[in-house]
Fold these 2 entries.
Entry 1:
Amino acid sequence: MKKLMSILIVDDELGVRESFRLLFKDAFEIHQAASGREALQAFASRSIDIVLLDIRLPDTHGVALLRQIKEVDPEVDIVMVTAVDDQQTAIDAMKSGAHDFIQKPFAIETVRALVHRVAEKRGLSSEVRYLRQELTRCRPFEKMVGQSQAMREVFDLIAAIADSDSTVLIQGESGTGKELVAKAIHNQSPRRDNPFVVVNCGALPCTLMESELFGHRKGAFTGAIADSAGKLEVANSGTLFLDDIDSLSVEMQAKLLRTIQEKEFERLGTHRVVKADIRFIAATNKVLSEMIEENRFRQDLFYRLNVLPVHLPPLRKRKADIPLLLEHFLARPAGKRGTHGKRLSQAAMEALMAYDWPGNVRELQNRCERWCTVVRGDLIRLRDLPLHDFKSTPRGNGSLREAVQAFERGFITEVLESVNGSRTKAAERLQVHRNTLLAKMRGLGIGFPLERTK
Ligand SMILES: Nc1ncnc2c1ncn2[C@@H]1O[C@H](COP(=O)(O)OP(=O)(O)OP(=O)(O)O)[C@@H](O)[C@H]1O
Ligand SMILES: [Mg+2]
């Protein structure tokens, strides 16, 4: 069972302590102190999340005590309870690190809403802390994150094959991280201090591709105005990454095959044979076996390349990676040094988990960058996501009942978010009785955070 958060109530009046206790006893673990000394004692012996701290205490001033408590635990959230006519003290308290303050006499609902808001924030930040720890644990190779079973297997495979010189073929849909895997293999390999060279096989027409790979001597063809080294030569003693290998013309496939087999090549227009000490890694987002059947890809080249196959599953098949990737890309937005990361509301996270991510990790990364730029504040909510993309569409293979429930869950969560979690307002919008809404939420398992007031 999840551990309850704890509240320490510091007030010398028994009546005040008791009314706070009654208010929070169901949702929190309660501790009490009647003086500054007792408060510090409580701190020394227990883990406290939130403190409700009266400003007037018999043995000390509330703001002084606040500073002492903050020294013991800078992360604790302290809500000061001040007198209505003592604005200056409230200001001092905020400057000394109080989270918020309430003024006596206070309305019970205000106190309840405030404390629940603090608790919700703490819940999220401890979740973020947990995810950060997970990130360092689940990132065996710099920049690559993943905790799904599938990605753990990929990480193990990378570690296992890095030392070898055998050719690797990485297959996976666009945006699944093929280039990242190729770099990780190189960086783990004994060749790591030598070049990692990328050739994009789809980028150039055949004649230029040949010169790009093999290099040429001045005058070897029209336009060859100077001697030029090809990518093979540059990659010698390192790794050559042949990206989008499926786009290579059939003619170039034959030439590449010869180089890989014979482990040598020559510049165009020369007869000087260069020994190739190159580790080849190829990648494709096509299904090569289909292209072989259609005679668009050479089977012999496929076998040469596919000595060590690596398959990168699409993101929708390893959803356990989604929260970690979101944290990774939201915590430090690319190109925005100095900016604080953003968090996702629970409803937004649920929608992103339900989404299929056709563009895989690249799509997720791009969307995160966008949210970091356009969303104000540090919380990304369901309403910040483009609804036509993320509204969960019930799949066709479930029962009608499941489909209706999925719709209801999505719809109710969305409305709750639009009214800051207020059940009363949500019920009004939905035109149902508040109790009906509460029953529905229980039935559908919607654990929306408690009401927040502005
Ligand atoms: N596991 C991961 N952890 C962190 N970032 C990742 C991960 N996988 C992919 N990325 C990031 O997603 C983006 C796309 O990855 P990459 O370029 O390697 O995909 P690809 O499979 O080569 O796609 P394409 O077939 O379109 O070339 C890159 O910015 C990459 O850094
Ligand atoms: Mg790529």
Entry 2:
Amino acid sequence: MATIEQLRAKLEHDRAQVLERLELLRADTQSAEESREGSPFGKREEEATEAFELEKRLAMERRLRESLADLTHALTKFDAGTYGKCELCGNDIEPDRLEARPQASLCMRCKAQQLKSVAGAS
Ligand SMILES: [Zn+2]
């Protein structure tokens, strides 16, 4: 079983990776925009592909930002001394769950409840 220190190290590692990928994505988007400006007579098909690529990049960026927020949030809980506690019921989050997903903020029970209520609302 992973120790708290190992989980923290993993979170920090993951966070650094997400930041790096966001940085790469941003550089990539910028260069794509520059090349588009350089060729004002692009074909329709190319434009459609570019729009699709941009859409994909934006979706990826959104996902990365979400996980960055989760990871950052989890890391602040180490300092607050609340890491590993469920944010809804206050019980300890299952060690297996933390090992699989160190940024988890809810215990399995509360997560299952949350998923059920989201599914029920739609
Ligand atoms: Zn809970």
